[in-house]
Design brief:
Number of helices: 7
Protein name: Carbon-nitrogen hydrolase
EC number: 3.5.5.1
Shape: globular
GO molecular function: hydrolase activity, acting on carbon-nitrogen (but not peptide) bonds, in linear amides; nitrilase activity
Structural class: alpha/beta
CATH architecture: 4-Layer Sandwich
Keywords: Hydrolase
Enzyme class: hydrolase
Number of strands: 16
CATH superfamily: Carbon-nitrogen hydrolase
Order of helices and strands: EHEHEEEEEEEHEHEEEEEEHHH
Strand content: 25-35%
Helix content: 25-40%
CATH class: Alpha Beta
Length: about 280
């Protein structure tokens, strides 16, 4: 990894039109390339947001289908890595899909995938009721991969509320950059989005790249937005001027910052793993 690498986090308002969303993504790729970014991260549901729950089943495809092939070609033609957070991958049967984070390199090759582990089955206070598990299969694998931008830990949206996953990515899988593509609701975003992201960065001493859906997708659905890039000290180093516009946030991943924070506060040495607490409890 170079000592400094420029990355970008996209913010967009996907709709129930695959072609329109691809056009938006293509435009954002051009912006990122012009800005000098080598990696562009897209939010959850970047390629499609249905007007009703479960609509995504109708357009779900395998990773070698025509939708993903277009994004692989886009990465190759633009010589940029793409993080595609939350692709509707066809599941094991016609009534289920997988919410899959796909990482594509600058040659257009799929380098890694992660299927969302924690599914959003929530009655949002003052909002709608969601039951992602009714049409989505949960993943089981923790995924981290080496890249020119450091060792990347892949997650999706609701995973953000479960710190054990991020602890696992940092302390067992060596992650240096955590990727959190999301489509947070307006209510939950206002209450918790920035706080949770900065907490994950601080407690793992990792960069966090959080690409977000923002604005009204339809009369029935609205996302909070606020795409962020956060450094290992919890400082916001990349952010758009508002929460709902379509655009990119740009920042430089600095290897020296990761090393400095971790050496001055060596929590990896001070940390007591789960096995320690189990042993301590057993001895009581």
């Amino acid at each position: 990894m170079a000592t400094s690498v420029r990355v970008a986090a996209a913010q967009m308002t996907s709709v129930n039109d695959l072609s329109a969303n691809f056009s938006t993504c293509s435009r954002l790729v051009k912006e990122a390339v012009t800005a000098g970014a080598k990696l562009l991260c897209f939010p959850e549901n970047f390629s499609y947001v249905g007007s009703k729950s479960g609509n995504s089943l109708a357009i779900a495809e395998p990773l070698d289908g025509p939708i993903m092939k277009k994004y692989c070609s886009l990465a190759k033609e633009s010589s940029i890595w793409l993080s595609l957070g939350g692709f509707q991958e066809k599941g094991s049967d016609d009534s289920h899909l997988r919410n899959t984070h796909v990482l594509i390199d600058d040659a257009g090759n799929i380098r890694s995938t992660y299927s969302k582990m924690h599914l959003f089955d929530v009655d949002v206070p003052g909002g709608a009721v969601y039951k992602e598990s009714s049409f989505t299969e949960a993943g089981n694998d923790v995924v981290a991969i080496d890249s020119p931008f450091g060792r990347l830990g892949l997650t999706v949206c609701y995973d953000l509320r479960f710190p054990d996953l991020y602890q696992e990515l940092r302390f067992r899988h060596g992650a240096e950059v955590l990727m959190v593509p999301a489509a947070f609701t307006k209510v939950t975003g206002e209450a918790h989005w920035e706080t949770l992201l900065r907490a994950r960065a601080i407690e793992t001493q990792c960069y966090v790249i959080a690409a977000a859906q923002g604005g009204k997708h339809s009369e029935e659905r609205e996302s909070y937005g606020d795409s962020l890039i956060i450094d290992p000290w919890g400082k916001i180093v990349g952010r758009l001027s508002d929460r709902t516009s379509t655009g990119i946030a740009v920042a430089d991943i600095e290897l020296s910052v990761i090393q400095s924070v971790r050496s001055k506060m060596p929590i990896s040495q001070h940390r007591k793993p789960v096995e320690f607490w189990r042993s301590a409890s057993a001895s009581l």
